[in-house]
Amino acid sequence: MADDAATTAANKQFRKQRQAEDGKRAMMDYESTANANRAKTARLRALRLARDAAEAEAAANAPPEPAKKKKVSKKKADV
Known about the structure:
The chain is rod-shaped. It has 1 helix and no strands. By secondary structure, it is mainly α. It has a domain at about 20-60.
């Protein structure tokens, strides 16, 4: 019986250590994924802002479009 108690205690201790290691690994994975997402978001935001600035500059430097003339429809007069 003493062997059973010792084995059970050892198994509990081993399980606790494994759970702690799994928790640390999971937290490291979570943090690395979060860091990668933040970096990707920052990169995409910078690209979007640069694109928007380039579009605004191009629109400001573009020559104005000539005004279109409206078509005048000729109505038939009733005689």
